[in-house]
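[Meeting: bench + compute handoff]

Bench side (C.D.) handed over the final construct sequence. Compute side (W.E.) agreed to return the predicted structure before the next meeting so the bench team could plan truncations. Sequence as handed over:
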Amino acid sequence: MTWPVLVFDIESIPDVPGLRLLRGAPADQSDAQVHEAWVQERKANGQSDFLPHHLQRVLVISCVFRSGEGLRVHSFVDRDGASEGRIVQSFFNSIEKHVPQLVSWNGGGFDLPVLHYRGLRHGVVADKYWDMGDDDREFKWNNYIGRYHMRHLDLMDLLAMYQPRANAPLDAMAKLCGFPGKLGMDGGQVWPAYLEGKLEDIRRYCETDVMNTYLLYCRFQKMRGGLTETEYSQEIALIKETLAGLAEAEPHWREYLDAWQ
């Protein structure tokens, strides 16, 4: 297991301005009404009410960053409703700076396509991320874009042997491996929580999800020989120590640690 590692997860909400633009919605309709009208139209046509990737607005990007200097948990959050481009750019700046091993759970199927579309919309620049060997020959055979490359490891996709019918939920696998899993919220509750002004609850939920992903990545590394049993135990101890320190200011980490026990 080599450093640095950047594990990430996003939480998104409906891009209501985008829906307004594409649907020509009346200006006097609230955000909730614009979205609900779209949902009802889809249901009437027997279609899924899950918004397509290009109409998912990025609200939070949570990361676990592991380097030789230690372990850090941080989030990029659109707190003012107008900073989506900034937080997406900040995420790709982290990749540019550290060129890390990227790790996700279904990142290839959801998180990264959303980040691509939103980055395109906001004029984000991500040179190193998009390098497929034109600038760095090493990236020709191992880049962030290739599904079967390891520079971005979509752990769910790999474990399923790239067969969607074999995909497993993050929450289920985390709990089966003895980790806390999801606490207090799931993805379907993010939009209602946002409408209620619970942005910090969403941020905390995203952070615990990304920690679940990092824990599963460590377990995977032990399985594939990237960590010895001793190294794995040391990493778990480091995670618990780090979260205990964070729990003094962030109570969701105390709840997480308690669920882990």
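W.E. noted at the follow-up: The radius of gyration is 19 Å. C.D. will use this when planning the next construct.
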